[in-house]
Amino acid sequence: MEKNIKLMDESELKVGLVGNPNSPTIMLPVAKESVYGQEAENLKLWGVDPESGKHFIEGLVDKFQILYFDYEGHRLKHPNPENLTPENLVKDLLIIADEMNVKKFSYYGYSWLALVGLQLAIRTDRLESLIMGGFPPIDGPYKEMMVVTNKTYEQALYNQNSPVIKEHDHINPEKVDWDNIQVKIDTNQTKQFVTMYKNLMEFDDREIQHKLVIPRLAFAGEKDTIVYGENFGSVTVDIIGILQKNKQELEHLGWDIEIIKGNDMDHTKAMQPVTVLSLIKHWLIKSLNITR
Question: Does 94 reside within a domain?
Fold first, then answer.
């Protein structure tokens, strides 16, 4: 079943629901629309599965009901520059669950959609489990990401009329000079993330841990450290370093922690279905006590 659902900002998002209604439901906001042809070839150069959403759904649907949509893709097409706040993000997710008649569900998000999952978990009692990939549950790099998104927004404003590289253009990632790259994107696309991180500046992810009483998993690739050049504020977003430093404390708090090994296991590689699908599936089966 697929349905167009009106979100908080009145934009409409295509949402699907597949699988056995008697099985536990997994909310997958990371289910990207498949792309083909040259666009798919460009994504493959960056190590991105052009059919990742489809592969996640196919890999999980035998055991779970899947509530799927491409929230990031939607926000790039329909930016919400002034109002992409944690509160509104959570309201969007709960509207989606309500419209699809899903009462209880597990949530899997990666990167910024992982931090959205944490916000969801502290604002509703409808979550059965939470998986955060590529973003640590305590000591999250909110301030660093605020710097990066601010700089990206400034660049977007500055580069509106200049001939610069666009994200995922036909270019070999090996040959990109990350210190000097200039990205040309819609100013509203990046401003919405400035809004989101701005509203998280006072958020204390340690203070809320006692509210989390559901099964929860956090994971990252062992090379998930991004060093940004001067254009992006010269900051380091060290996802894996934070996760490793706090691993024991997180496990004591009730989190399961997985570090995905591999010399190339960076932020992008660790989000691909071929890498994480089996981890997610096995953990969900165990945590939700599903018979195989």
Answer: yes
